[in-house]
Amino acid sequence: MTAPEVAPAAARFVESREFLHQIKTRVGQVVVGQDVVVERVLIALLTSGHLLLQGVPGLAKTLLVAAVSKTVDLAFARIQFTIDLLPSDIVGSEILDQKTHEFRTHRGPIFTNLLLADEINRAAPKVQSALLEAMQERRVTIGNNNFALPAPFLVIATQNPVEQAGTFELPEAQLDRFMLLHRLEYLKPEEEKEVLRRNTRLGVRREGKGAVARTEFDVLDGQERGTSEQLVRAMEDVQQVHVSEAFLEHVVEIVNRTRNHPKLELGCSPRAGISLVKASRARALIHGRDYVLPEDLFALAEDVILHRIRLSYEAVAEGHTSQQVLQEILGEVAR
Amino acid sequence: MSTSLRHGALVAVMLSGAIATVAAQTRDQREATVGMRCYVEQKVLPGTELAAAPGDFRALVAVRVVKIWPHGSQLRYDLEWTGFEPGTYDLCKFLVRKDGSSTDDLPALAVTVTSVRDGDDNEPSEPEPVPAPRVDGYGTDQIVFAVVWVVGLLGILFFGRQRKAKAAPPAPRPTLADRLRPLVERVAGGDADDAAKAELERLLVAFWRARLGLGEAKAGDAIAAIRRHDEAGVLLRQVEAWLHMPVPPQQVDLKTLLEPYRAVTADSFAPLAKDGTKGATGGAR
Question: Is the pTM of this model over 0.90?
Fold first, then answer.
């Protein structure tokens, strides 16, 4: 008996697969060794979910998001979150026009396609709430007017896991709004070497009579871009990815096990199950399939589930981590 | 009648009215119960000025001169008195002259003190004997407490051990092989629901995890490794295609596909040799 070919995508998805492949290739020209993160950004983009990146400074988080926005022709904005940031600094405000003596609406940086919320845990809870509300409803209210945010709208937030002084940890209810929380790790030595090698080749950029050193941000300027129509088609294709009943059984099994595990005080919400399925469909498309596999589920489980579960007091006291418990659950599912 | 006479008569009437009012307000309390304060007012007494006799805690009546007015050649007094023992007393016996002269010329000013309690009810009750608080013996208490604690601890330890020993051992969890075989039969027989099919897929992954020695690997890495394996990868992909593809491929023959797992035993889970060949105990195929 020969093994059936399960990898190739259905013919109807070829265009989207090519589009996604191009994005990965272009981003790969500036960002080295972060294939998984690029995949997670694409998953978030294709499913209209939101992504929280957790990692120490200097792991090319901003560069990555900027690169993705440039390769897909998306509007990009970045907000550096600080303690004195106000909700109006994000969503906008009404300003009195001195000439006309009338209020006019000043739209904040949230009116974009791809928003990078840098160090989201440094802002006060009311600012976090303002952003998270917009993420959920995809609308904001300025004065008495309600505005729809552009489509697609994706928030990629970052937070630093080591420097916690003066920060406001996102509560579980707000973390749940992020479809994925991906933990960035340091590059492998050979990848790091490649970063340095590319950096030495950047050169300078002439500006008038002067010149400035080129950065990785300049590399993508002037390159061919994907169109928003291609992105919309890919998003539609994700919705066509087949989800089998057996796959849903796997998802429900894992979600239920988090709710009944003795070391966990808080298990997954139904939203976690929904996110698992949505993210798995997008991953399947990126990998050229028109159906999901348990492989997608297990690959995404950490990013989808880990920020939605909370260890019990006893488990923390015994030195367990959420990561260990989740791996225990995933291992038990297939044991 | 002339006007002056009419005015005089009016004044007389008013004065008599005022005197009558004052007389009506004057108190002359001669009888009281023990401890009650009483007043004898506007009493005219002959002789020089009187004052209360010096205080004596044993006195049966206490008298106080409240106010004194001149009354012709005599003096008029307001007196306050309180009786402490039942009986009849002359208040004048409790007054002295300020100039030290005798008070024998004073008329009797009798008052009566009565008691509301019985005569034999005056003695206080005998106090109840109360044991004195203990002021020592803490060392003994500590020893007793320590003995009780140790006995309790030993009891818990030994009693608990005996009970544990007596408790029936928990039923052993069915082995992977025991769980896999009936599921394979059910699915191959075509009467398995989606939950059973999903369970079968998980058990097959578990089977190959054990066979390929991937028990300690992360679940995601383990599945990726199984899919890359020459033998396991082909079999797992076939199962995946049958379970998850929107239209399962025609060439998947379920009975043939599950045949390798129908006769699994505990030995079938022995890890394969490192070169990927089958172990000495045999494999699924």
Answer: no
